[in-house]
Specification:
Chains A, B: Pfam families: Amidase. Two copies of one chain form a homodimer. Chain A is an alpha/beta fold and 395 residues long. Chain A has 13 helices and ten strands. The longest helix of chain A has 27 residues.
Chain lengths: 395, 395
């Protein structure tokens, strides 16, 4: 394999494994985020104290098995934000991967290494995970394709948890056809049938930086050429701030339930941002978390009813390109809040979302998202390929 | 039966028939628009020349049989606009029924007599038919409940055609519970399951007169109390003028195909408006009609995808209260065009629509429409009853 010039992979010896000699992914390579188990290796979860306090995995994660059996070759494990609890992709312990498409900017996270590895063409497919945007955001920032499949559609057996009610096993590819091929291996069968109409989520377009919205107009036109005129809609009259805040509160109690016991027992060193988020998770007001879960039920019923007939949401994956590496923590937090008001829509509702590397703003990539009802991931991947083709992108 | 003080029924001897002694509609009375056959009677279709050139029907229309078998008593046949081709409810041959809720205004049509009969409490249920608004509009104008069921869901056997691709057998009631009860008899089983979310069709609300939109705000709030916050959406970025125009052209060739041969053979006298519409139908440019049908396919795919998961459109049934009886033909035409830009949505797409007598403007009624995917009429009727109840209306 090519030298890891972007620091996408874990330092030290690489986990490598040949795939089956035949299969739909024969000849393709893949990497997995360091929260998926590979038998015999310690899963590090982005934090040295986690690695120190955990024994080597005794089995491969389900997705590793599936990809190997389909013929793909495992070429390594990629860096993750510590405990997957961050969106910039920063890792102070192992080094933040370079964003190959915009080296002066963050790669995005938490699946930062997987995104960087695919963007640098170090592998064809890379598994990430997405709770609140951890595949979609680095895909958008690094200029590659990414999917957050609908909740529950891809096995998380052998993956470290963050917020089990929101966690999904997603992946990246630099070509739409490869993203889809991996889906044919990883996703359950079914969910075919036509998608449409296209719904342009007004609040998400308004939330985007004007230059980003402008840059994505052409790709939106490509989507319209496939699905017909986009219908302007508002899906969260409560406001994206409310969507973000409810997601944050509901997720925090899950994160603390999943990881608090280990943190309390181990007192690990945690990097900037991550440390503060776990402190907030520990202190989360149960009433706010309950309100978040109640809002989730409302939004979920709403979006599932809206999308159940095949409708597809379309909006900028992130409000703009990746923040600069020189951004302050306050600036990063502001971007995070503005970003998650939109990513939390699919997060709260368990929807499938594919991001297409549709445009650049000042040289840095921005993605366009297509979002469909749970269980429609295969159709969504086929649609993304058609839209990318119509937009003249590499499919 | 009470005296027909509003001229809702055909003049002369009334068609009357007892229903089955038991059944879900036992104790209720019904009337049918004079385009449904009743055995032994000439079906007049609103025009003396039609009556003169047609023999008595040899069998009851399917809906007549269904209602009689369910225990309802038939108390008469009601006036219709000639050949059902008009929205004001005017009939120069038999007299325009009085709008019991606003006697200085048109009753709306083409199912004018059925609406007037129910509004004047002369019967519990009245069958109309709806191609481009002929149940919804008189229901809105007369302050009663009305349903245009989804296309194909209720039999039109034994009913005169106008535009077979758009014609539906709808009905009126002064109470939501009675409207639903008739649906349980007339509609096929199935289509249960939850409805939602509520989609507020922006162009239809903007199309309404400001006073009407304001008057319906409270009922919209009642619908939101049942289905959650309404999501603003635009369903026809092409514009309502285009929707109306495509409907008009596509329907006209159907109307001429259905009734042109009789008109050419008989040279009937036709009243004002109706005469001009059939002349236009005869002269319709086939290319415009084909464009209308093509638009129909686009809009139908769009709306069925949008509503297939259970979503419900909500908008003012008509842009305002009924036109005054003193309105000029030009004023009537302007209202007609503005009205049908909205009614043509369900018309073109075969959707089910229920109108609720939700408010008054300057003393005259205006209705609020709830619109669902084809096949969801039973659920829609149950929803309308809940919304009406939440709005404090008679259910």
């Amino acid at each position: 394999m090519t030298e890891d010039t972007v620091g996408a992979f874990l330092p030290g010896a690489r986990t490598r494994r040949a795939g089956a000699s035949e299969g739909p992914l024969a000849g393709l390579t893949f990497a997995v985020k360091d929260l998926y188990d590979t038998a015999g290796d310690v899963t590090g979860y982005g934090n040295p104290d986690w690695a120190r306090t955990h024994a080597p995995a005794t089995a491969d994660a389900a997705v590793v098995t599936s990809l190997l059996e389909a013929g793909a070759r495992l070429v390594g494990k990629t860096k993750t934000v510590e405990l997957a609890y961050g969106l910039t992709g920063e890792n102070v312990w192992y080094g933040t991967p370079t964003n190959p498409a915009a080296p002066d900017r963050f790669p995005g996270g938490s699946s930062c290494g997987s995104a960087a590895a695919v963007a640098a063409r170090l592998c064809d497919i890379a598994m990430g995970s997405d709770t609140g945007g951890s595949v979609r955001i680095p895909a958008s920032y690094c200029g590659i394709y990414g999917i957050r499949p609908s909740w529950g559609s891809v096995s998380l057996t052998g993956a470290c948890p963050l917020g089990p009610a929101y966690d999904t096993a997603g992946w990246f590819a630099s070509r739409a056809g490869v993203l889809r091929l991996a889906g044919e291996v990883l996703l359950p069968p079914g969910g075919d049938g036509p998608l449409g109409p296209l719904l342009k989520v007004q609040e998400a377009w308004v939330n985007a930086e004007p230059a980003t919205a402008r840059a994505l107009a052409e790709a939106l036109g490509a989507a319209e050429s496939v699905l017909g005129s986009a219908l302007p809609i508002q899906v969260a009259p409560e406001g994206l701030d409310a969507v973000y805040d409810h997601f944050r509160c509901a997720q925090a109690v899950e994160a603390w339930a999943s990881l608090g016991p280990w943190i309390e027992a181990t007192h690990p060193e945690l990097g900037p941002g991550v440390k503060e988020r776990f402190a907030a998770a520990k202190a989360m007001d149960p009433a706010k978390a309950a309100a978040g879960r109640a809002f989730r039920r409302v939004l979920q019923a709403r979006l599932r009813g809206l999308l159940g007939g095949g409708a597809v949401l379309v909006y900028p994956t992130a409000p703009g390109p990746a923040p600069l590496l020189t951004a302050s923590q306050a600036e990063q937090n502001a971007v995070r809040e503005r970003t998650m008001g939109v990513t939390a829509i699919a997060g709260l509702c368990g929807l499938g979302e594919v991001t297409i590397p549709a445009a650049r703003v000042g040289g840095a990539p921005v993605g366009l998202s297509l979002v469909a009802a749970p269980g429609r991931d295969r159709a969504l991947l086929a649609l993304a390929e058609r839209v990318a083709d119509a937009a003249g992108l590499m499919v």
